[in-house]
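ARCHIVE CARD
Drawer: 12
Card no.: 0347
Subject: one protein chain, sequence and derived structure
Cross-reference: see card 0346
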Amino acid sequence: MARIDVIMPQMGESIAEGTLSRWMKKVGEEVKRDEPIFEISTDKVDAEIPAPGAGVLAEILVTEGQTVPVQTVVARIETEKGAATAVKADEPVKAVESVAAQSARPAAPSAPATISPSPAPPVMPASSAAAAPRPTPPAPPATGNGPETAEDRLRRKSTPLVRKIAAEHNIDIASVTGTGHAGRVTKEDILGFIESGTPAPQGVAATAPTPVAPAAAPTGAGVEPWEGDRVEPWSRIRKLTADHMVMSRRVSAHVNSLFEIDYTRVGQIRAKKKKEYAERGVNLTFLAFITKAVAENLRKHPVVNSAVSTETTIFRRDINIGIAVALDWGLIVPVIKHADELSLLGIARAINDLGERARSKKLNPDDVQRGTFTITNPGGFGSYAGTPIINQPQVAILGVGAIEKRPSVVTLPDGTDSIGIRTKGMLTMAYDHRIVDGADADRFLADLKRSLENFSEDAA
């Protein structure tokens, strides 16, 4: 009987390993081709991984909670019904060690798979995960053809994402102790090193790397639970979000500006067009109008659509707007690419699509990358206003407060003032004061306010 290997896929160029969060099938159960059989969690996105072929799940080689390198065989499918047998107790370890031995450095022993403290149920949004490409193999050791170069060692010891973070913070990766497979420096290692506040200048080789303690938990360590308390370990998405938020606060000089927006005109256009959009399968929300106006104004204010790299500013050509989506198991920010090129209908459709795929775990890794500006909508839960944390490496994030009818001063045609009912809401923008001055931020928000309060019905 033929057997098909089920592997840990590579969910993005910079992904070197993944955590198997949950098995959706048991040994002996029948599976269909492309039917999701397990969930994984990476530092980019969670995914439901489909079966590469139809048959019976014969072996499970990696248990829930294990973190293993990409291309690890995690299970095997028997292509003909029948002899599906339970895996022996020592098989998961052997399978992981076999892959570790193949990719480890010559002088290093095989590293055991790390066990994530996260429980199985909470997971991040996912992609449909088509067959992933095989990763570039690690650089070979020194041979008779010549010694291994410093660049070879660097690439073998880290991923592109880690090297990017190191370059942005002027850190020599050789000075960071790696806790990943075969001594690889993981994203958590480099962020922990940055948090320690003692990075070595890039390009200066460390003769004896000093072990660096991981970054302290943002909420404090060593708190004792009391009788009756419920202790719940962080899911992977909660841990990554916490690390990212603490890092962002430390890296960027956060400043906030708040503007009140009169959405009365937008509300009127929305009421007129909502049925037409619904007939096309699209829910027309206030957020679509806001995203459209943001996309149009980012082109006029390029510093708000930029990123910081050491002591330089990168002005992004593309306008890719991330829309934060709150899920039961965490928060994720799928990205609308080239938002400035889309109509209001196109933006509304993209928001609907990304939100639905986030909630159903069908996002692809590319869906959450290359954002240049982020919008978060806590007003959907009733929040009057908020002060969000910048989504690194961006330099600004817009928070949308609750949109509701409020009493307001209205100037009548004859110039007299009266109290009227208007549809209003707050917009809050957090920005990186290293490169975005208060005047820059307020000019952007003033233009955004003008666009929304005078929204053209033709644009809808």
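Annotation on reverse: Residues 82-146, 198-218 have pLDDT under 50 and may be disordered. Residues 3-115 form a domain with the OB fold (Dihydrolipoamide Acetyltransferase, E2P) fold (CATH 2.40.50.100).
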